[in-house]
Every structure is written in C-alpha cells, then in structure tokens.
Design brief:
Elements (H helix, E strand, L loop, with lengths): L9 E9 L2 E8 L4 E7 L5 E3 L2 E3 L12 E6 L6 E5 L2 E6 L4 E7 L10 E3 L5 E6 L2 E7 L5 E6 L1 H6 L7 E4 L5 E4 L4 E5 L4 E4 L1 E3 L2 H4 L12 E6 L4 E6 L4 E9 L2 E10 L10 E6 L5 E5 L2 E6 L4 E4 L1
Parallel strand pairs: 5-9, 18-22
Antiparallel strand pairs: 1-2, 2-3, 3-4, 6-7, 7-8, 8-9, 10-11, 11-12, 12-13, 14-15, 15-16, 16-17, 19-20, 20-21, 21-22, 23-24, 24-25, 25-26
C-alpha cells in the first residue's frame, strides 16, 4: 500500500517468532532478503540484520532468491539462490551463506523440508540434493541423489513438496513424480483433466505449462502452482494403475487472480490458500470461491 516503497517480485515469505516479537523474512527476485519485525498486535516495520559470507564473496543486496523454507524445529529460514544456499535467523538477526553451488540454467530452484525436519531437499538445475539434520535441527551432511538422476531424466526441477509420510512430490518441466527415498523408487504421476476443464481452450496440459510450486493441504488435496495456468486444485488418487492426480478446479485470471505465474502456495489455520505471483499476494477461499488480492 506504500506508494513510496518499490514493488519487486517476491519469491518467498517465511515467518519466525522470538519471544513477543514476530518476524517475516521476504525473499526478493534480485534484491536479496528483507527482515520485517512486529510486536504483537502492531504493524510490521522493516528491520536490520548482520551478514556472514563464510568466505564467499557475496553482494547480499543483490542475491537472487529463488525459494525459501522454514526448518520445522529451529524455525530458521533456509533460502536457495542463484549460486548459494543460505540461512536467515531472526533470533540473532543474521543472514549467513551456508554453501555455494555451480550455476545452472533455470529460473526455479526448489527447497522443501521433511515434516520432521530431518531432511532438506534442494534442487539445482536437474540435480536433487538431500541435506540431513540431527534431531536438534543442526545440519549434518549433504549428498546428491544420483540414483534419482539414473532412474529419471529430469529437466529443470521446478518444485518439491514432502508429504507427511515422507513421500516427495517432484515437479520437473516435463513431468510430475512421486519419489520414496527409503527404497529409491520413482512413480510417474498422471494428471487427469475432467471434461469441463479439458474442453477449455485456454488450458493446456498442466505439465507442459510447468508446475513451479506445490502444497498438499487437507482432504487429500494437492495444489499445483504453474507458470502459465494459475493454481490447479487437484485430488491425489491411488489405484491399481498407480498414483494419479485429478484436477478439480483451475484458479486463474478468470477466477479473480491478478496473475497466473504462481511462485509460492501456503495454507493458513482457517484452510484458506495464499499464493504469490508477479502481481502480489492473493488469498483463495476454497469453500466460498472468493479471492482477495493484496
């Protein structure tokens, strides 16, 4: 709402609470990361933090944030950028570069924690990295999942989501997969379009239009954020032929969204779905079909 504050593409938002203070970490497309702070029942104000580059030559104000994820135990924010993996912690108000990686073509670098906080999955181009943490949330080690690359020829990994049972839903540019790391198995996911949606000339195959964000919510619902189709509300189905995804509804500009490139999806305590795009933040009420744009 502040016309004096320039608008940038927001790639990620995470929250953290320290005592009575609330914090938001905002990851921007090519303007680095911001820290916003608020006391309870007060508005958020832009805050300051210190930076630690750990020997890497980094211009923190120009970091190109691509994805962010909150550790379930420590509440630290981990962020994936072009060239670096970093940590933001509001408790000591620091942003630290954890490690660097080779440049790889692709605008989307996914990041997702397992619900128990023991694993962090990071995509870099066509490679999926598994980071392991101890029971206290401390980083232990990292390794590329080479067996996954041997089983499937991924092309530009765009999104990752970890289900409560540990199954990974992985979106590449040309396919969706379910992955079970404990037995190194990969299951292609078929996307079924109902008749009403399939006949819509404005909707192509969701895989062809690239899934770049994922969220599994209640009632076996999987939300797919795409690069050109908006948000697809789908249902995960299992049967003798394997796992499939049926699209129940497409949320796009016709439904009230201001933009159809969906970078992030989150669910609040009331079951409403929040999505970020090139034109701000939107809240979807799946029950009333109301969309509120910010």
């Amino acid at each position: 709402k502040n016309l004096n504050y320039p608008a940038y593409v927001v790639r990620g938002v995470t929250k953290q609470r320290v005592g009575q203070d609330r914090y938001l970490w905002i990851g921007l497309d090519d303007r680095g990361i911001e820290l916003w702070q608020s006391k309870l029942s007060e508005n958020f104000q832009l805050g300051s933090f210190t930076t630690v580059d750990n020997g890497h030559e980094v211009d923190f104000s120009r970091l190109r944030i691509r994805s962010m994820a909150t550790h379930p135990i420590t509440e630290e924010t981990w962020f994936n950028t072009v060239g670096f993996l970093g940590i933001a912690d509001a408790e000591d108000r620091t942003v630290t570069i954890h490690s660097s990686h080779d440049e790889s073509f692709g605008r989307h670098r996914a990041l997702a924690f397992s619900p128990d906080g023991r694993y962090l999955y990071q995509s870099i181009g066509e490679t999926l990295i598994e980071h392991e943490f101890d029971s206290m949330g401390h980083w232990v080690s990292a390794r590329p999942l080479d067996w996954l690359s041997e089983k499937v020829n991924f092309f530009r990994l765009g999104a990752i989501h970890v289900l409560p049972d540990g199954v990974l839903i992985v979106a590449a540019e040309d396919a969706l997969f379910a992955v079970t790391p404990w037995n190194q198995a990969v299951y292609p996911l078929e996307i079924k379009l109902p008749k009403g949606i399939a006949e819509n000339p404005n909707l192509n195959n969701p895989v062809e239009d690239r899934v770049i964000s994922l969220l599994a919510s209640s009632n076996n619902t999987l939300w797919l954020g795409t690069e050109a189709l908006g948000v697809l509300e789908t249902e995960i189905q299992t049967g003798p032929e394997g796992i499939s995804i049926e699209v129940k509804r497409a949320w796009n500009e016709d439904a009230g969204l201001p933009d159809v490139t969906i970078y992030g999806i989150a669910e609040d305590a009331a079951g409403q779905i929040w999505v970020s795009s090139n034109r701000g933040l939107s809240r979807i009420n799946p029950v009333t079909s109301e969309i509120l744009n910010f």
